[in-house]
Amino acid sequence: MLPINFISAVCISIGIASDNLMLSAMSQNCAAKVKLRETLLLLFILLNIQMQAFMYGSKLAKLLPNLIGMEKWIAVAILLATVLRMHQDLKVAKKENNNIQFGLNGFLGIALATSIYVFVLGFSLNALQIHYDMAYPISMIALGIMLTIGWYTKNTKMLSLIKKASLIIMIIGIIIFFIQ
Predict the structure, then answer these.
(1) Closest residue by Cα to residue 69 from 130, 120, 127
(2) Which of 122, 100, 114, 1 is nearest to 55 (CA)?
(3) CB-based contacts of 43: which residues, under 8 Å, 6+ apart?
(4) Could you list the residue range(s) of the whole structural domain that residue 143 is in?
(5) Into how many domains does the chain fold?
(6) pLDDT computed for residue 98 by the predictor
(7) CA 7 from centroid of its chain's CA atoms
(8) Which of 39, 73, 150, 166 shows a CA-CA span of 20 to 30 A to 106?
(9) CB count, 10 Å around CB of 7?
(10) What are phi and psi of 116, to 5 degrees?
(11) How far apart are CA 16 and CA 83, in angstroms?
């Protein structure tokens, strides 16, 4: 049987990683204008940046117990704020029916936002005392899977549905943490 921490980490990672769906879909659309090899290289670089953001978040969480001692509650509050922000982004996108800028500016903006979310993920999983050797691979696999799904899914309604389901899974992960 899987440990409850593992299930919670997977659920939270899936929710955070859902932001990679749109980024990957943007890259797929950019690939029609630029060389496919360059687009895939850009996604690989993005994943590496996210890995660094995860590690920095994790290291910050290791420093906090010495400073304030309430890192678990801070992690839960940050995760809930992230869920609310991601949900708000979905609602705004649906209301305004905005088209994503498929140029470099749109890509860089979403890349920065996803890296911030991955920083939050690294911080939260460490603060919730989910062992780094377990949290890091789970997170990177979830991020990679979402990049792949976004790359191959052409339907924006389907991407939105997947993102909503991912946010629900993330909330379930937070609830599982409370239950333990």
Answers:
(1) 127
(2) 122
(3) 23, 24, 27, 147, 151
(4) 4-179
(5) 1
(6) 46
(7) 16
(8) 166
(9) 16
(10) -65, -45
(11) 8
